[in-house]
Amino acid sequence: MNDTSQPTAGTTILVGVDFGLPHFDGELEELGLLAETAGLKPVARITCKRKAPDAALFVGSGKADEIKALALMHGASEILFDQSLSPAQQRNLERHMGLAVIDRTLLILEIFAQRARSHEGKLQVELAKLHYLSTRLVRRWSHLERQSGGIGMRGGPGETQIELDRRIINDAIKRTRERLEKVKKQRSTQRRQRNRRDAFTISLVGYTNAGKSTLFNALVKARAYAADQLFATLDTTTRQLYLGNQDGTGRSVSLSDTVGFIRDLPHGLIDAFQATLQDAADATLLMHVVDASNPNYPEQMAEVQKVLAEIGAADVPQVLVLNKLDAMSPETRPLQLHDHYTVEGHSVPRFFVSAQTGEGLAALREFLAQEAVAQMPAEDHANSQELE
Description:
The protein is of the alpha/beta class. Helices cover 44% and strands 19% of the residues. It has 13 helices and eleven strands. A seven-stranded mixed beta sheet has the order 6-7-5-8-9-11-10, with helices on both faces. β3, α3 (87-97) and β4 form a beta-alpha-beta unit. It is globular. The N and C termini lie far apart (75 Å).
């Protein structure tokens, strides 16, 4: 048994609160995967039901005591909540339990900070973390004592420190936003040049770990990083996808692999990643990749649609690609690998594929080739027919 007086670094207790919402993860599976992705080790899980969050401690004092006892028993060093906490709730929980408390928002931000590779990606994560930190000043600097005088007296050193740090963070936010704006203009110029060169652009979107990067590699024969983990890809990668000569053009189109979406993606990240996600909003076609082997894929699809609406990409035409056909059990495999499916009231083409084995990719390629021809300017189409 662990020495309860010496918590083990990186060990965490997973906490989920069921408020009656349909997407509640009773087993906390996704939170556990997120924790492991961030380098944490879940040692215990606990859930509870509430009609509404407790204003002070989110879970109430009784459940907070229970979580604290569980953490002591397992020698955990951190408490990880599957929901977002207010600054006051986070501060109060840390004081009550004597342990670090992390909410879902900060966890996702930390993962993004670890995974960002490009200059733009790092700037976007930095901006999102600064916005998050700016609301947590009361917690970060709670160790500074405030010296209070009589009625009408000004605050002492503690209050001055908070004001100073808020000013420092606001200045950092301004500088980071200005640097990001420059990168955004550069990307916009590159996108315009690409659109002039290729009228047809495709962006891969989907819930994290749906296999987008594996599908991207299979289609363009690239070597983009792909792994069976959450948020394996953060930075947008664009390559040329050659559609062959069966369409009469032998032309290439642009294919972009974007960051994966997830339930309750922090709004700060949506705002910060606007430049990256703009590729999706500007695309001719969205390839919505879904993990067909995940029993919760309809809920994951709904989350992706919600984020697409937030970034202004809800009206971009879509094709559904249900990936990981090789991981589906025989009884759940579809009778047809190509049909249509209703998304947000619209009938969209649906393809079942395995990016790992290549099954179903030929039909998907043929569909993309037909779509590219349909989108070609009339004069380009006529020229291509003359060359046959």
